[in-house]
Amino acid sequence: MTRVLLADDQALVRSGFSLILSVDDDVEVVGEAGDGAAAIELTRELRPDIVLMDVQMPVMDGIEATRRIVAEDLAKVLVLTTFDHDEYVFDGLAAGASGFLLKNSDPEHLVEAVRTVAAGHALLAPQITRRVIEQMVAGERTVGAARSAASSGAPEPAGPAVVPAGLAQLTPREREVLELVGTGLSNAEIASTLYLGEATVKTHVSNVLAKLHLRDRVQAVVLAHRAGLV
Predict the structure, then answer these.
(1) What gap in Å lies between CA 58 and CA 76, rounded to an integer?
(2) Which domain holds residue 204?
(3) CA separation for the pair 212, 168 (Å, rounded)
(4) pLDDT at 203 over 50
(5) Any idea which residues bear 4-aspartylphosphate here (predicted)?
(6) pLDDT value for 150
(7) Residue where a domain stops, chosen among 118, 145, 170
(8) What pLDDT sits at residue 160?
(9) Fewest beta carbons within 10 Å, which of 76, 133, 177, 202?
């Protein structure tokens, strides 16, 4: 049973989500919150597996609430919003969210999203993943250049990519899978590219996450870029 907490400032929206999720026998809505601060308190109290988090809420917005929930390792967060803006996706994932879904998605997509995140996978369309990573990489380059300029008075050439120590533990196939994950491909697309079964790809992805101590697929994408694999 996957326990879900709903966080949205509109009661009708919460009721709608609750009705949709209640159809699934494997999902239980354990609580509702009308703002980010209440979402944090209820998450601490009820310990749900997943928090469906709206972005724009009073008292505390969903991004800050997500950041605090993830920092305390209280639950996984699936960000829901009516706005398909890059900044919401970027900020939500940077705060530690495991997925991003528009509120106008079909009901079956909402249920599938909960199942996906509950299974430990990140929920992002490949094109959204690519946009997010582009922003992350660009942001890190900007910060690095600013630090170099502040310390020496002039920007320095970028240094070599930082290679995590755990990367050496990966098998050649796992490293290959990580590289393809880094490009934003789904498991099905990776399976097609490498002529493997999708179940085999899922196993490789799980092994990569475990060996590199990564929370989810999004962190794997970020690491692949930072390590220069993509």
Answers:
(1) 21
(2) 128-226
(3) 10
(4) yes
(5) 54
(6) 53
(7) 118
(8) 45
(9) 202
Q: 104 and 149: one domain?
A: no
- Helix (H) / strand (E) element for 19: namely helix 11-22
Which tops the pLDDT comparison, 183 or 157? 183
Rounded to 5 degrees, what angle do the CA atoms 126, 131, 134 make? 120
In angstroms, the Cα distances linking 117 to 79, 104, 139, 229 are 11, 18, 27, 25
- 24: burial class by Cβ within 10 Å (0-12, 13-18, 19+)? middle
Mean pLDDT, rounded, for 6-18: 94
Alpha-carbon span 225 to 135, nearest angstrom: 12
For 111, the enclosing helix (H) or strand (E) is helix 107-118
- Do 153 and 220 fall into the same domain? yes
Mode of pairing for the β-strands spanning 99-102 and 76-81: parallel
Residue 166 lies in a domain: yes
Closest CA to 178 of 159, 214, 210, 204: 204
pLDDT confidence tier of residue 156, bands split at 50, 70 and 90 = very low
Residue 213 belongs to some domain of the structure:
yes
Cα–Cα distance, 196 to 204 (Å, whole number): 11
Cβ-count burial 39-69 (b if 16+ within 10 Å, e if not): bbebbeebebbbbbbbbebeeebbbbbbbbb
46/42 Cα distance (integer angstroms)? 6
Count CB-CB contacts under 10 A for residue 22. 11
Mean of pLDDT values over 135-140: 60
Asked whether the predicted pLDDT for residue 84 surpasses 70, the reply is no
- Does residue 123 belong to any structural domain of this protein? no
